TrEMBL record:
<keyword id="KW-0812">Transmembrane</keyword>
<dbReference type="Pfam" id="PF00375">
    <property type="entry name" value="SDF"/>
</dbReference>
<feature type="compositionally biased region" description="Basic residues">
    <location>
        <begin position="473"/>
        <end position="488"/>
    </location>
</feature>
<feature type="transmembrane region" description="Helical">
    <location>
        <begin position="35"/>
        <end position="57"/>
    </location>
</feature>
<feature type="transmembrane region" description="Helical">
    <location>
        <begin position="259"/>
        <end position="282"/>
    </location>
</feature>
<feature type="transmembrane region" description="Helical">
    <location>
        <begin position="302"/>
        <end position="327"/>
    </location>
</feature>
<feature type="region of interest" description="Disordered">
    <location>
        <begin position="466"/>
        <end position="488"/>
    </location>
</feature>
<dbReference type="GO" id="GO:0015175">
    <property type="term" value="F:neutral L-amino acid transmembrane transporter activity"/>
</dbReference>
<dbReference type="InterPro" id="IPR036458">
    <property type="entry name" value="Na:dicarbo_symporter_sf"/>
</dbReference>
<keyword id="KW-0813">Transport</keyword>
<dbReference type="GO" id="GO:0005313">
    <property type="term" value="F:L-glutamate transmembrane transporter activity"/>
</dbReference>
<keyword id="KW-0769">Symport</keyword>
<keyword id="KW-0732">Signal</keyword>
<protein>
    <recommendedName>
        <fullName>Amino acid transporter</fullName>
    </recommendedName>
</protein>
<keyword id="KW-1133">Transmembrane helix</keyword>
<feature type="transmembrane region" description="Helical">
    <location>
        <begin position="186"/>
        <end position="215"/>
    </location>
</feature>
<dbReference type="GO" id="GO:0015501">
    <property type="term" value="F:glutamate:sodium symporter activity"/>
</dbReference>
Length: 488
């Protein structure tokens, strides 16, 4: 699993630059628009499905609220902060820092003047005078200030954005940039060969990771029994989306058997399930999509790296279910306005999710803050998140793959036009004097590397041929008429 994660960065960089450079800028814009619209639509659909299921099944039992110990850690979380963090990560100020750190907003207590003063001048008389004031200040709520900090973890979103723009402009400079495109294409092929070698270890790796996770839970039976209805609700949502909704969309758009496509992604699904990260499964997903399912590489190189950062169908489903589950557990009654709030914030939060395990629990705080549900109850879900995270990650990964197949079908005309243009440029065009020239070259250009004796003045040749024909007609007029009669 560590080796798979090692390959994510070179794979994302090489695939995006080579993929976006192989398409022209207008094509990139069309594909990006189709991809983002599809991502947003499916995330909204999953959030709506989650809300419908959680209201129908009603897994939140108020008795659970008292049986499990909860921490009283309250964290100030705001949807605006989450969206601003998304913006900061999309546009990193340092590309090298983005490869190992990502920006996020934290709220820290504002340092008081008396504390700073006491630390600077450690005088006992001042401490005695201010002791009463300090005691009063400790009782009061500390003032929190917003601070932008960096936490460890690859900022894949920023790297994706940079590579996308870089590749798009690389494709516009023509022959000059071809050596760079070939360089990144070669890197992509090398990494995929390395992935093929690692794949032999996958069964051992996956079973070990899952077994280790199960053994690390202290009382598995009690946790599963208490939160069984919650797990069941999420599982039903994932199964419904994977086996019904996704397959119907695929069949309607692509007009092929969707379950054959689904079966080709089993290996990638198992890897996503084990690692609980779409990004970690990305090398295997590429291999399945390109080698087994034969989806156009220009589309997969473009869609999959973007999808593993933005398209979080399973996360949208989970957040909507979990937020209403916690509200039900606290005895809250949600009105229509609050349900719409959950729908929209779940969709927005899922698209700003980091592609790391358990990232959804942080985003859940955003939604709970929006509907005034108890934020500290999130700790209840830590006990089962190791399992639920794996289920929703397979949904995220499959969402990316089906998006690539659907975008390929919708962009088929543009891809064929692009293929035709490339083919037209590569076909040698024969010139009247028998030489071969490429499209866009003049006769003189095509022969400029040959000896002077080969260069022919075409006007002189045409004039000479016409003179010979005229002479022939004058010399044999009856023969010419005979030919004409024979043709009639």
């Amino acid at each position: 699993m560590r080796v798979l994660k090692l390959m994510i960065l070179p794979l994302v960089i090489s695939s995006l630059i080579a993929g976006s450079a192989s398409l022209n800028a207008r094509m990139n814009g069309k594909i990006a628009l189709r991809t983002l619209v599809y991502f947003a639509t499916t995330s909204l659909m999953n959030a709506a499905l989650g809300i419908a299921l959680v209201l129908l099944i009603h897994p939140g039992d108020p008795d659970l609220h008292n049986t499990i110990d909860r921490s009283t850690d309250k964290r100030a979380v705001n949807l605006l902060d989450s969206l601003l963090d998304l913006g900061r990560n999309v546009f990193p100020d340092n590309l090298f820092q983005a490869s190992f750190q990502q920006a996020h907003t934290v709220y820290l207590p504002k340092p008081s003047i008396s504390n700073t003063f006491n630390e600077t001048f450690n005088e006992t008389s001042l401490v005695d005078v201010d002791s009463g004031v300090d005691a009063q200040r400790q009782d009061a709520e500390p003032t929190l200030i917003r601070v932008i900090q960096y936490r460890s973890g690859t900022n894949t979103l920023g790297i994706v954005f940079f590579c996308l723009v870089f590749g798009t402009f690389l494709g516009t400079i023509g022959e000059k940039g071809q050596v760079v495109v070939d360089f990144f294409s070669a890197i992509f092929e090398v990494v995929m060969k390395m992935v093929t070698c690692v794949m032999w270890l996958t069964p051992v790796g996956i079973s070990s990771v899952i077994a280790g996770k199960i053994l690390s839970v202290d009382d598995l039976h009690m946790v599963m029994a208490q939160l069984m209805w919650f797990i069941l609700t999420v599982t039903i949502g994932v199964v419904l989306y994977q086996f019904v909704i996704m397959q119907v969309i695929y069949y309607v758009v692509v007009r092929r058997n969707p379950f054959k496509f689904y079966a080709g992604l089993i290996q990638a699904m198992l890897t996503a399930f084990a690692t609980a990260s779409t990004a970690a499964a990305l090398p295997v997903t590429f291999r399945c999509m390109n080698d087994k399912l034969r989806v156009d590489q220009r589309i997969t190189r473009f869609v999959l790296p973007i999808g593993c950062n933005i398209n979080m169908d399973g996360t949208a489903l989970f957040i909507s279910i979990a937020s209403i589950f916690i509200a039900q557990m606290s005895g809250m009654t949600l009105g229509f306005g609050e349900i719409v709030t959950v729908l929209l914030t779940s969709t927005a939060a899922s698209m700003s999710s980091a592609s790391v395990p358990s990232a959804a629990l942080v985003l859940l705080l955003v939604v709970l803050t929006a509907i005034d549900a108890p934020v500290q109850d999130v700790t209840l879900l830590f006990a089962v998140d190791w399992f639920v995270d794996r289920i929703r990650t397979t949904n995220n990964m499959l969402g990316d793959c089906y998006t690539a197949a659907i975008v390929e079908e919708l962009s088929r005309k543009e891809l064929m036009a692009l293929d035709a243009a490339i083919l037209y440029q590569e076909i040698p065009i024969s010139t009247p004097n028998g030489h071969v020239s490429l499209e866009g070259q003049t006769e003189l250009d095509s022969t400029c590397t040959m000896p002077d004796a080969v260069i022919v003045d075409m006007n002189a040749v045409i004039n000479k041929v016409q003179q010979q024909q005229q002479q022939h007609q004058h010399q044999h007029p009856h023969h010419q008429n005979g030919h004409a009669n024979h043709k009639i």
